[in-house]
Amino acid sequence: MASTGGGAPGTYTPTPTKKTQRSSFFSDSDVDWLRPDGRGFHQCRPAFFRTGAVNSAAGSAYAEFGNTKVIVSVFGPRESKKAMVYSDVGRLNCNVSCTTFATPVRGLGSDNKEFSSMLHKALEGDLPVVISCASLALADAGIMMYDLVAGVSVSCLGRNLIIDPILEEENFQDGSLMITCMPSRYEVTQLSITGEWSTAKLNEAMQLCLDACSKLDKIMRACLKEAASASLD
Amino acid sequence: MVGLSLGEKHFIQGGIDQNLRSDGRKRDAYRPISIETGVIPQANGSARIRIGATEVIASVKAELGRPNALQPDKGKVAIFVDCSPVAEPMFEGRGGEELSTELSVALQCCLLGGKSGAGAGIDLSSLIVAEGKICWDLYIDGLVISSDGNLLDALGAAIKAALSNTGIPRVQVAAGASGDEQPEVDISDEEFLQFDTSGVPVIVTLTKVGRHYIVDATSEEESQMSSAVSVSISRKGHICGLSKRGSAGLDPSVISDMISVARHISEQLINKLDSEISAAEADEDEM
C-alpha cells in the first residue's frame, strides 16, 4: 500500500505582487485589520496532502488546508450499467458528502442534500480543496489525466483581495473568485465569480490564483512522487 | 440531445469559422428577442421571453418573512429553475434536474452578488420592512418551456423583465410592538412599489466552438461547443458574476478576451432589452 507517501506541510503562497502595489495596500484605511488566523492577505494556509487514505478504493487522497479536511476516494473504472449503446467517452460521477459536524451549525451540509444548490453554497469555500484533492485521488487511482487540477479561491473584502479565505471571512466577503486550473498546460478548467469586479481587480485576482495554483501543483506532485518512490522501496 | 451527422457538424463548424452561421447570423449576433410581461396574474411580476425558438417564463413572488439573523437589514431572494418536459423529452421525470440545478446555481452566481450583498443586481436592503423583524422574501422561478440553446441568457433576461414588472405592496407597520414581539402589518392591496431594475445585470454567454466564440448559440451549435463562459455585466460595465461550463480548459488570456467581448456585447443587449421591456409594459397597459 502506498500509504506512507506524503509531504511535509508546504505552503503555496504566491509571490507577492509588485512592491509599489503592496505599499498602497497597507496605506488603506483598514490597515489594522487582521485575518482571524493571523495570515497576510496574500498568504495561503499550509497545505498537506497524502495519498492512499482509503484502503478499499482504487485511489484516494487526504487533504488538509488549515481546518478544512477532505478525503476523496475513487472507485472504478468499471463497466457502465446505464449505458445502452457504445460510447467512446467515459463518465465521471461525483458525489460530495459533508459530515454533520463539518460546519459550525450542525448538519448544514447533509440535511439539505436534495437542495444541491444549498450544498453548493455550503461547500463554496471548500470546493477548491475538494477539487485539488479529487485530482490527486484520480492520479493515485492510476487514471490517465491531461494534468493535475489545482484549485484556489480569492475573496474580495472591501478593497482588499485575500487568498484562500476561511469560512469566517467568506461570510463577510463582497465577492469571490475561484479558479481551478491545469498548471503545466496553463489552462483554466473552471472559473466562477460572484460579486462586482472591475477589470483591473479581476486580472489581479486571476493572476494571484494562477500563481498559487502552480505552487499548489508542485506540492501535489511532490506528494505523488513521494508515494510512488515509497512503494518502490 | 442533438443528433448530428458528420456533415452537419462540419457545416456548423465551418460556418462559424467563416463568420456566417447556419441561420445566417454573424458570430456576435443574437436571434430576434421578444418579451411579454404580466403573463402570470397570480405572481407579483412575470415575463415570457422568446429568443429564436428558446422560450422561458420567469415569475417573481413576494412573501413576508423574517430576515436572516446575520443580516437583519436585508431581505432574501431565492432563484429556482425548472425545466419542463414540454421543452425536451429528456427532461421527463428527474431528467431535467441536473440542468435545472446547474442553471439555478449559475443564475444565483450571476445575479445575487457576493455574500455581503455587494454587487448584487437586486438591492436587498430595499426589501426590508422592519429591521430585524420583517422583510420581503422574493421567490424567482424560471421555467423553460422550449429549449433551443442559450437558456442562461434567456433566463437572465426574463428575470430582468419580470423584476421590472414586479409591484410589491406597500406595507404599514403598526407602531407599538416592543422588544422581540413581531409587529402587526397592514398590506396594502392598492399601492404598489415598483422595483428598481436598472442595476440588474444581463448575462452574456460566449460559446467556444473551434477557435472562435459565438453568442446566443442554438442547441445544434451548443452540441459542438468545447466550453462556454457566461458573464453577467451591469450597465456600468462591471462584472457581476461569471460561470464556466464545458469540460475543455481555456487559456487565461482567452478568458480575459472573452470578458471584454462580452462587455461590448452586453451594451447592445441591455439597450435592446430595455426597449423591449418598455414596449411590453406599454402593451400590457393598453389591454
TrEMBL record, chain A:
CDD domains: RNase_PH_MTR3
One example GO MF annotation: RNA binding
Region listing for Disordered, in residue ranges: 1-24
Cellular compartments annotated: Cytoplasm; Nucleus
Record key words, sorted: Cytoplasm, Exosome, Nucleus, RNA-binding, rRNA processing
Pfam families recorded: RNase_PH, RNase_PH_C
Biological processes, Gene Ontology terms: nuclear mRNA surveillance; poly(A)-dependent snoRNA 3'-end processing; rRNA catabolic process; rRNA processing; U4 snRNA 3'-end processing
InterPro entries hit by this protein: ExoRNase_PH_dom1 (IPR001247), ExoRNase_PH_dom2 (IPR015847), ExoRNase_PH_dom2_sf (IPR036345), PNPase/RNase_PH_dom_sf (IPR027408), Ribosomal_Su5_D2-typ_SF (IPR020568), RNase_PH (IPR050080)
Coiled coil residues, start to end: none
Entry GO CC: cytoplasmic exosome (RNase complex); nuclear exosome (RNase complex); nucleolus
Residues annotated as domain Exoribonuclease phosphorolytic: 43-124, 147-208
Family in the record: Belongs to the RNase PH family.
Name of the protein this chain belongs to: Exosome complex component RRP41-like
Automatic annotation (TrEMBL), chain B:
GO molecular function, one term: mRNA 3'-UTR AU-rich region binding
InterPro entries: ExoRNase_PH_dom1, ExoRNase_PH_dom2, ExoRNase_PH_dom2_sf, Exosome_comp_Rrp42_subfam, PNPase/RNase_PH_dom_sf, Ribosomal_Su5_D2-typ_SF
UniProt-annotated location(s): Cytoplasm; Nucleus, Nucleolus
Keyword set, alphabetical order: Cytoplasm, Exosome
Any GO BP: TRAMP-dependent tRNA surveillance pathway
One Gene Ontology CC term in the entry: cytoplasmic exosome (RNase complex)
Pfam families (UniProt xref): RNase_PH, RNase_PH_C
Residue ranges of domain Exoribonuclease phosphorolytic in the record: 30-169, 199-263
Similarity field: Belongs to the RNase PH family.
Protein name: Ribosomal RNA-processing protein 42
